[in-house]
Amino acid sequence: MFLRYVLFGLFISALSAMVALSYTYCYYALLFDFSKTLPFWKILSIFCFLGLLFAGIYYLVAEKSYRLILPLNIALAIGSLTSILWPITASIDEEFPEMFPSFAIPLHFIFPLFWLASFPTFNKRLHD
Predict the structure, then answer these.
(1) Model pTM?
(2) How far apart are CA 36 and CA 39, in angstroms?
């Protein structure tokens, strides 16, 4: 049973990391290169960590009480909203640092978007 949660976390990690890396590559190529501040390996590792972390948390919550899944998803949404404070307040040593928030803020919503979008399908298959 736990393996299904881990596979779901890995699936979401791979999907969101692929989209985030594509977005980052296009942004670096077309607009501004922030690769010193936020290289590809950091983005990939952050999304893999988030996927496995939330799969583990979801496993614990689903095993304890199924009613706690809604607060978990709300906490994910609130956490992604509050996490945009870092790019807004960060002082980076790059050319055009005022453009860094416009690059980094969309990255904060990619993982919750894919988690919440694919969550009902996974949840339905798990509890049928």
Answers:
(1) 0.82
(2) 6
pLDDT tens readout for residues 21-53? 999 999 988 888 888 888 899 999 999 999 999
For the beta carbon of residue 50, count every other beta carbon within 10 angstroms. Answer: 22
Number of domains in the chain: 1
Rounded (10°) CA dihedral 85, 89, 93, 94:
60
User: Which tokens in the block code for residue 24?
Assistant: 């980052």
Evaluate whether 32 touches 95 at the Cβ level (below 8 Å): yes
Are the CB atoms for 69 and 61 separated by under 8 Å? yes
The amino acid at residue 94 is E
Range of the domain at 104: 2-126
The whole-angstrom separation of Cα 10 and Cα 15 is: 8
